[in-house]
Amino acid sequence: MYSSYTRAAGEANLGPRPDAGQPRSGSRPVGRGETPKEGEIVTSDELVRCLREQGWRTAVVPGARLADLRREIESRRAELDPAYLAIVDRNLEFEVAGSTPAVRSLIVVAVPHACARATFTVDGEARAVPIPTTYCHHAEVHAEVAAAVAAALAPAGLWAAPLPLPEKLAAVCTGLARYGRNTIAYVDGCGSFCELVTCVSDLTPGIDPWTGPRLLARCDTCEACRRACPTGAIESDSLVLRGERCLTLHNESDRPFPEWVDPAWHHCLWGCLRCQRCCPEDLALRDEVAEAASFDARETRLLLGGVDHALLAGEPTLRDKLGELGLLAYDDDFLGIALSRNLKAALAAR
Length: 350
Known about the structure:
With about 350 residues, this protein is of the alpha+beta class. About 30% of the residues lie in helices and about 15% in strands.
């Protein structure tokens, strides 16, 4: 599993260019040759409507747009943070492996997903620590969406499969979202509090909604996120976030914090919410919080002291709670060093 830095600080460098283009037209949907049965999904519009019934927003573009996503990243290598590039090169894919039939469409789905709150017990007091959107149940949400898309298309003999991509970039380029000045993707109806999932399919796309990266209109005159960012990662005269200054990059790493990082800046178990909680686009949704795992005093002491997978093998309840927070996919260095460090900082800062 790749770090959520790809979904937060790392992909943040892929903000909109000042000269982002306008939507380009594509071909209209065509039939598959046979007469579809009643209820079968054979057009992209039908898939969009089907997923919207579940509360999800969807964009479908031609599969050839995968090459455009790759070119967007390649064209910016000189200005991208090396840590992000390492994640892109190691984890993201732009081609479907194996004998899968030709890809006709790229499908991007936005699922509303509230932030979470885990509770830890210190000196007999319950202490709540926030967790940003893209951590808890991340793998489960992606699996659910991929399965739902595949199930919706299967009756018509169509296939769909998940494909790891720079999800925010895909969402803004397809018109499903727009970047904020903080280079987080904002979707109508759920703001930045959503999970973005990318799939590919042999579904024939309809009119191509591709726009290229675009900035929210509000951001032209708003600097709330820049003022709220304690690290100076968001600049007023640039649409490229300084990924190397983003707090998320550093608290997702098991490396020591740089000397310039003030531990008091930390307020989440990992990641950061400062630029989202102050954003006018998120005001209506920022107080929606899902209650996550609660850790008693003994479990909290174990986490503060550092745990590893061997210890968790003998602590099934604690292991299940960390699994709920999406932490079991991380290695021992993260669990033993970064988790303990982040929890201490978040508890001390409150």
